[in-house]
Design goal:
359 residues; alpha+beta; MutS, DNA mismatch repair protein, domain I; DNA polymerase, domain 1; Dna Ligase, domain 1; five-stranded mixed beta sheet; four-stranded antiparallel beta sheet; 12 strands; 37% helix; DNA-binding
DNA sequence: TCTGGGGTCCTAGGACCC
DNA sequence: TCTGGGGTCCTAGGACCC
């Protein structure tokens, strides 16, 4: 018996999420160029978290240093990041998504999620979803529809803002084939440059590339993975298994470089303390620690140490301080990061995750 | 403007073992 | 005299995403 229902992947992405939340709180900002980043202080080192569409029209984007952004848009309203407000709004959005009929929801971040549904008319489903999100949160979103997670994710970009777009095996290459490889989710500037070294510049060229060439350049896993990305292939099933963190970390860029061993040690103790609070909330053993050091101006080193699962809090701290001993003497430290890797239950690594190996 | 902070996974090379 | 071959574990570093 044919019900007419087909499995679909929907990718939901809130439009200019952070800026939109700010406009809800400050209605007078509607229609103005709004830039959210750091503590909203142009005197500090910080980057743009989100820019409203009005600000983006001046060439401002996420990740851009705040001071550059402010220079491009002299009339911009600069606001500090208010993580609590965005988290609260995000919970409202995700709760709305989970209420959609028959939906399996896999959250990807503050402002985006995959939905797995069975439907004969995914466009109508998507429009209903957009309406529900707007009514409950007053936020607009775009929806990508796909037959794989990759295609749904990429489709969303063509739907923005407030739209719906469908990408499947039938139109993937027509839409994406002539675009540069960097448009693919998971291909960044470094990989696209290495690909162009093999005369691979478009998605279609990568989709048809020689596997051995890719393996030789990127290794046995990444090579084939890039090719499958270019074909839009991969997982078709949305996995709502609760997230299990692999580790926790904290890092801080100092406004003034640390110059003495005592300053560095005090900073590491503080970072370790904050990370261990996160770790202990999960009651899972630590199996490794990493100290990340950015020497001024921009040289990054990391030092790693495996540790036994039986290590207690003091042992973790002791290992962290041991790693401090590797910091180059007399070289100014601009950034410190500390990461604790946690053990995972058996089998936890095998499940789908929104990452390379899971696809 | 010299480029935040919290994550994930992959690869290469050395150490060590048989 | 010069160095095989496979396997695993660990460390350092790279790349990407939101």
């Amino acid at each position: 018996m044919d019900s007419g229902l087909t499995p679909w992947v929907l990718h939901v992405d809130l439009d200019q999420f952070i800026a939109a939340v700010e406009v809800l709180r400050h209605p007078e900002l509607a229609g103005k160029p709004v830039i959210v980043g750091g503590r909203g202080d142009l005197a500090e080192r910080a980057v743009v978290s989100t820019a409203s569409y009005e600000a983006r029209s001046f060439g401002v984007g996420s990740g851009m240093p705040l001071r550059i952004a402010a220079r491009k848009v002299p009339d911009a309203v600069i606001l500090p990041v208010d993580a609590e407000a965005y988290t609260a709004a995000s919970h409202e959005v995700m709760a709305t998504l989970r209420e959609q009929p028959g939906a399996t929801v896999q959250v990807l971040g503050w402002d985006e999620a995959f939905l797995g549904i069975d439907s004969a008319d995914p466009e109508t489903y998507a429009r209903n979803l957009q309406r529900a999100v707007l009514e409950r949160t007053r936020l607009h979103c775009s929806v990508g529809i796909g037959d794989t997670l990759v295609r749904a994710k990429v489709a969303t970009g063509f739907g923005k803002p407030r739209g719906v777009f469908r990408l499947t095996a039938a139109n993937w290459l027509d839409v994406m084939g002539n675009r540069p490889t960097i448009d693919l989710w998971g291909v960044g500037s470094k990989v696209s440059r290495r690909l162009s070294g093999h005369a691979i510049t478009t998605v279609a060229e990568l989709a048809a590339a020689d596997t051995e060439t890719l393996v030789a350049e990127f290794g046995p896993r990444m090579g084939p993975w890039y090719r499958s990305l270019a074909r839009g292939e991969g997982a078709r099933v949305v996995d709502d298994t609760p997230w299990l963190a692999r580790g926790h970390s904290r890092e801080t860029t100092y406004q003034q470089d640390l110059r003495t061993p005592a300053e560095v040690e005090a900073a590491v103790r503080e970072l370790v303390e904050r990370v261990l609070q996160d770790v202990e909330a999960e009651a899972r053993p630590v199996v490794g620690v990493t100290l990340k050091v950015r020497y001024a101006p921009f040289v990054t080193r990391s030092y790693t140490k495996k540790i036994p699962e039986t290590a207690d809090r003091q042992a973790v701290l002791w290992r962290a301080l041991d790693l401090v001993g590797r910091i180059e003497a007399g070289r100014p430290v601009r950034l410190l990061g500390f990461r604790a890797e946690m053990s995972l239950p058996d089998g936890a690594r095998d499940r789908h995750t929104p990452t390379r190996s899971g696809w």
